[in-house]
UniProtKB/TrEMBL annotation:
Name of the protein: ABC transporter
Main location: membrane
Organism listed in the record: Cellulomonas uda
Membrane topology: Multi-pass membrane protein
Compositional bias (Basic and acidic residues): 587-599
Compartments, as annotated in UniProt: Cell membrane
Matches recorded under PROSITE patterns: ABC_TM1F, ABC_TRANSPORTER_1, ABC_TRANSPORTER_2
Family indicated by similarity: Belongs to the ABC transporter superfamily. Lipid exporter (TC 3.A.1.106) family.
Region Disordered: start-end pairs: 587-624
Family annotation (InterPro entries): AAA+_ATPase (IPR003593), ABC1_TM_dom (IPR011527), ABC1_TM_sf (IPR036640), ABC_transporter-like_ATP-bd (IPR003439), ABC_transporter-like_CS (IPR017871), P-loop_NTPase (IPR027417), Type_1_exporter (IPR039421)
Domain ABC transporter, chain residue ranges per copy: 337-580
Entries under PANTHER family matching the protein: ATP-BINDING CASSETTE SUB-FAMILY B MEMBER 10, MITOCHONDRIAL, ATP-DEPENDENT PERMEASE MDL1, MITOCHONDRIAL
Keyword presence, Nuclease: no
SMART domains given in the database record: AAA
Length: 624
């Protein structure tokens, strides 16, 4: 799994390798110190006691120490920057892939899981690459070289020390098995927790309005507690292995001492060799102890990498064709859109006829006309609309624009030709200007962009945006000024119009507007839409009025196409849908009236309160 990182880590490899070599050099220098000790003890100390030799040896140890410190500094400096570069590249690739993945992927994945993958998982990988990986290699090499030196210095004692490796390796293997499960669980739970925070913040108004703050807190605490329990389990597993990796070498050293001293007394091992053996063992013990933490870091990085590649390995199901076809030039009278035997099932609902929302839709949108799509709620109107710009791909049949199957066009070409305004408009944390011009080419001359902006705002009756605190530069969306539902819809409508598309898809874009504003927008749209083929999902008769023709979606098929009057006279289901909607509208209007009455009462009460406050203030002033 970790080898997958080579793809992103390649540019950093030279610096990581050089950094690793400097770290290895530092460790080997540390291992050289006991050998100096050995020669001092066996030479000047035990024989002639020459001061000069001791001073020379001390100078050598000092020089080795300074060089070791310098190499450690080199390692840090060399590896720091490439690690952040790798993290940036991985983050960019992940985000690019997320944008490329189809809507169906985003239906299945929660925001928190994607957020945690792009933030904390990548930080874990970076830390491992620049520290864990390097130190793991250096520690393992130091241990191997150190044990080799110990065997060379005092073979019997070296073999005793080596015997300690058997339980260490076994423990390491057991640790890997246990830790990798909890490491993955912890990362997934962190993602779930991020999802909960994201959803709660997003839906904060609903939580407050329904007084469900305590429940949300309860859910959050439960999840946070599960994560805590997993982290504790992780820490316990890690501390067990760290303890064992610390204790086993110390125990082995005690055994070596018990064996070594009699050997030295018997003259079978020199005193210098014994001193060098234990000094080397003290140096080797440190990386052995570190192995527990480094293994844990490695397994954390493995879990993070697994989660990262899980996303980047997901193959987009909606892709550009191998040999894209070009759209014919824009016809003067407008584009022809055909849906031919279209079937569609949302993947989450299972494939096959049972899960199908659309079961053989045949619909022809004549060039330059506006067609209203009417059907009961949940009948698949939004789904149908989304098949045209390939937010989903049909499961059977075909959607064609000007005779070209939309799957034969590049997505960029298709989406420049087809524009959508959704019922629930999402605005980005950017200025009104940026939001409206979102779909227009980036290289559009400033003057033309300004004309488009002003024209689109006028058609969508979104002129209110000019009166915002900073005019059209006012930041709206999540981080900016909140707009009302109707205002957001109008900005989103302006955004859809600004593209000047061949095909405009409107998913009940005026549902949050009052009837008179809707009438004004409708009138302007009729003028502007001449030459644009439009499909508008309509719930209200007033929206249907926008259309030249109406298509009725019923049981996954189009069961009637005609003018509003024709269908009223001939299509029972159409009459039923409109009547059902009128009943809903009547109920909504009644609710509006009640709310207005309450507002008036509240205003009256407020005025009375304000008057009382003013009287009280006056009284206080007079008293003063
Ligand atoms: N992403 C999805 N995953 C699974 N099922 C979905 C998804 N989106 C919609 N559906 C289902 O597909 C059916 C059609 O939904 P769609 O939103 O297209 O209906 P609609 O006619 O636009 O409804 P409304 O008039 O209420 O907006 C519904 O049963 C809905 O539950």
């Amino acid at each position: 799994m970790l080898l997958r990182l080579v793809h992103w880590g390649r540019p950093a490899v030279p610096r990581i390798v050089v950094g690793g070599l400097t770290a290895l050099g530092a460790s080997l220098l540390a291992l050289a110190v006991p050998q100096v000790l050995r020669s001092v003890v066996n030479g000047p100390l035990l024989t002639d006691g020459s001061r000069t030799a001791v001073v020379e040896a001390a100078g050598l140890v000092l020089a080795l120490g300074v060089l070791e410190a310098f190499l450690v500094w080199c390692r840090r400096t060399l590896i720091l920057t490439p690690g952040t570069g790798v993290e940036l590249t991985m983050r960019r690739d992940l985000f690019r892939h997320l944008l490329d993945l189809p809507v169906e992927f985003h239906d299945r994945w929660s925001g928190g899981q994607l957020l945690s993958r792009s933030m904390s998982d990548l930080s874990v990988i970076r830390r491992w690459m620049v520290f864990g990986l390097v130190m793991l290699c250096v520690s393992a090499t130091t241990v191997v070289v150190g044990v080799g030196l110990m065997i060379a210095t005092a073979p019997v004692l070296g073999l005793v020390y080596l015997a300690g490796a058997v339980p260490v390796v076994w423990l390491g293997f057991r640790f890997r098995q246990d830790y990798k499960v909890v490491a993955r669980r912890a990362r997934d739970q962190a993602g779930d927790l991020a999802t909960t925070v994201e959803e709660s913040v997003h839906g904060i108004r609903v939580l407050k309005a329904f007084g469900r703050g305590e429940d949300a807190l309860g859910d959050f605490v439960r999840q946070a507690d599960e994560l805590r329990a997993t982290e504790v389990a992780k820490a316990r597993t890690q501390s067990r292995v760290t303890f064992a990796l610390g204790a086993i070498p110390e125990a082995v050293l005690a055994v070596s001492l018990a064996v070594g001293v009699p050997l030295a007394a018997a003259g079978r091992v020199s005193v210098g060799a014994l001193v060098a053996f234990f000094a080397t063992a003290a140096i080797v013990n440190a990386p052995v102890e570190r192995l527990g933490n480094l293994l844990a870091m490695t397994l954390d990085a493995r879990a993070a990498t697994e989660r990262f590649v899980q996303v980047v390995d997901t193959v987009p199901t909606v892709r550009d064709p191998q040999a894209p076809v070009a759209l014919p030039p824009r016809p003067a009278g407008g584009s022809l859109v055909e849906l031919d035997g279209v079937h569609f099932a949302h993947p989450a609902r299972g494939s096959g006829p049972v899960g199908e929302v659309l079961a053989g839709v045949d619909l022809r949108l004549e060039p330059g006309t506006t067609t209203a799509l009417v059907g009961l709620t949940g009948s698949g109107k939004t789904t149908l609309l989304q098949l045209v710009p390939r937010l989903y791909d049909v499961t059977a049949g075909a959607v064609r624009v000007d005779g070209v199957d939309v799957r034969d066009l590049t997505r960029a070409q298709l989406r420049a030709a087809v524009s959508v305004a959704f019922e629930d408009p999402i605005l980005f944390s950017a200025s009104v200007r940026e939001n409206v011009l979102l779909g227009t080419p980036a290289d559009l001359p400033a003057e033309e962009a300004e004309d488009l902006l002003q024209g689109s705002l006028d058609v969508a009756r979104a002129g209110f945006a000019r009166d915002l605190p900073d005019g059209l530069a006012t930041v709206i969306g999540e981080e900016g000024l909140s707009l009302s539902g109707g205002q957001r819809q109008r900005v989103a409508l302006a955004r859809a119009i600004a593209v000047r598309p061949r095909v405009l898809l409107l998913d009940d874009p005026l549902s949050a507007l009052d009837v008179s504003t809707e009438a004004q927008v409708t009138a302007r749209l009729r003028e502007v839409l001449a030459g644009t083929t439009t499909l508008v999902v309509a719930h209200r008769p007033s929206t249907v009025a926008l259309a030249d023709r109406v298509a009725v979606l019923e049981d996954g098929r189009i069961t009637g196409v005609g003018t509003h009057a024709e269908l009223l006279a001939t299509h029972a289901h159409y009459r039923y849908v409109l009547t059902a909607q009128e009943a809903v509208d009547d109920a909504a209007r009644a609710a509006d009236r009640r709310a207005q009455d309450t507002d008036v009462r509240e205003d009256e009460e407020r005025t009375a309160d304000e008057a009382a406050d003013e009287a009280a203030d006056e009284w206080v002033e007079t008293a003063r």
